[in-house]
Amino acid sequence: MKKGLKIGLFLLLIVAAGLFWWRHYFVFGEGVKAGDLNYLVRKGYVFKTWEGKLIQTGFKTPTPGAIQSNEFDFSIVNDSIASTLERASGKFVEVRYKEYIKPLPWRGMSRYVVIEILEIKDSGTPSVLPYQTL
Question: N or C: which terminal CB in the chain sees fewer CB atoms within 10 Å?
Fold first, then answer.
């Protein structure tokens, strides 16, 4: 009876460890997103993580004639990537990311973790406001 209980407990521990790995460390997908960097902030009570948001503009909306704005929330683990993006607020940014099934507190609050910056350029918004005269 004791031997069966030990084997059952060991198997349960192995299954629980595998399930934890699958939910938190298995890379569900990888991809590239591009948009205007809205903000990047370092926050957290115990684990300080970098959190940011890209604004992606698009034309597919339920109401005709309107423009839809898609938001991409992400986390950053690497401090050098974060320091580069810190200086790019308001610019057009293209990043590569990994998608996990569930976030971890020390990795960030988002399921999406940016692993690389592909491009940073000016967003193309006019520098002159529409109500200003030249």
Answer: C
Cβ distance 13 to 100 under 8 Å? no
Distance between CA atoms of 110 and 25, rounded to whole angstroms? 13
Q: How far apart are CA 59 and CA 55, in angstroms?
A: 13
Establish if 129 belongs to a structural domain. no
Can you give the pTM of this predicted structure?
A: 0.75
Q: What pLDDT does residue 130 have?
A: 54
Reported as a single tens digit per residue, the pLDDT across 36-83 is 999 999 998 899 999 999 998 766 556 666 666 689 999 999 999 999
- Please tell me the distance from the alpha carbon of residue 99 to that of residue 90, in angstroms, as a whole number: 24
Instruction: Please report whether residue 14 resides in a domain.
Output: no
CA atoms within 13 A on the CB side of 43: 9
